[in-house]
Every structure is written in C-alpha cells, then in structure tokens.
Amino acid sequence: MTGKRAPQGVKDVAERGWYQGDGIGLVDDKGRVSIPAALRQALSANYPKANGKDGGTVIVGTHETQRCLIAYDPAYVDKLAERAAKREAEHPGAGGAVDYNIKRRAAVGEPAPFDGSGRFIMPAFARFYAGIKTHAFFYGVLDYIEIWDPKALIAADGYPDVVKEMVGFYMAERGASL
C-alpha cells in the first residue's frame, strides 16, 4: 500500500471481496446501464457508502490493452497505483528515463455514482472507445470488472471460448442479435 489509510468502513486489500459474476445490461441512449447484482454486491462491500445506504461509486476506465472497459471500487485505486509504480521502476525507458506512459495507461478512470439497483452512466469517451452501444457485457475477473460490447468480445483474439459462448447465450436469451 501507499501508506494511506482507507476511509472508515473500507476494507483492506487483503479483506476485499472478489469480482465474480457476469451479465448483460441494456444501455440506453444516455449511457445508463445496470451493474449485475453479484458484481454490484462486491462493489458495495468493498467500498460501502458512508451513510450506509444502497448504491455507491464505481470507477470506469479503458482497459490498458483491450478494447473494453474496466470497472472497480475507489479503494482499488491504491492497488493500481502501487502496481504502476512497480512496473515503472522495473521497466525504465531509453537510457534509464522514466516511462511516463506506464502510469498514464493505468490512471485512466472516471468515478460514476450508482444507485441501489446498480444503475450508472458510463462515461461517454470510455463507452465510445469500447464501442458499447445498446448492450454491455459485464464480466468479473477477480480484481476488477471488464465491460465489453458483446460483438467486440466475441471478435477479440485470445479470449476464452466459454466466455464468448456466454455472451452469445445471454444475447439470445434477450432476443438480441450479434
């Protein structure tokens, strides 16, 4: 950790819940979408609202290497900063200079409030970057959540076939075509 103390009620990194779960959300014309229940519960547990009410804050940014988004709770920022500083130290640029792009790639994220049903507005640029239009596929990958345009995930190289089939299944369940 960076030596910062987590706000009261926020869990230490060792006590954090994992992001496991998945689901498809319908995205409206303003970019509103709901976080699937299992993932929303982990967000709320990892960073509860100070007033004890439902909802909270999710940070949404672009993935460092994929055309998708990542989402996580505000307490995870310290972990991302720690990892970026370590990579920056281990991988200097030409002539030993600092490679500032390491932290630039890791720092992309914008906080978005979500209500008790998990509804939030995806940041416009992030949604544009990931190509998310009418549907968003949420997939918990332990430390964070990936948010994909279903067609982009199916076309992505190196992504597990079972997850691609999961997307097809959920879209068919909704009567939506890919």
Q: Separation of termini?
A: 42 Å
With strands numbered from the N-terminus, the spatial order across the biggest sheet is 1-7-8-4-3-5
Please tell me how large the radius of gyration is: 17 Å
Helices, by number, come to 6
Largest sheet: 6 strands, antiparallel
Overall strand count: 8
Binned, the helix content reads 25-40%
What percentage of amino acids are in beta strands? 15-25%
Give the overall shape, derived from the CA principal axes: globular
> Average pLDDT across residues?
86
Structural class: alpha+beta
Low-confidence stretches: 1-11
Sequence of secondary-structure elements: EEHEEHHEEHEEHH
Textual characterization of the structure:
- The chain is α+β, with helices and mostly antiparallel strands and 178 residues long.
- The protein contains six helices and eight strands; from the N terminus they run E-E-H-E-E-H-H-E-E-H-E-E-H-H.
- The strands form two sheets. It has a six-stranded antiparallel beta sheet, with helices on both faces.
- The longest helix has 14 residues.
- The N terminus is likely disordered.
Structural topology:
Layout lengths: L21 E5 L5 E3 L2 H10 L9 E7 L6 E4 L4 H14 L10 H6 L3 E5 L4 E3 L2 H7 L4 E6 L4 E4 L1 H6 L5 H13 L5
Antiparallel strand pairs: 1-7, 2-6, 3-4, 3-5, 4-8, 7-8
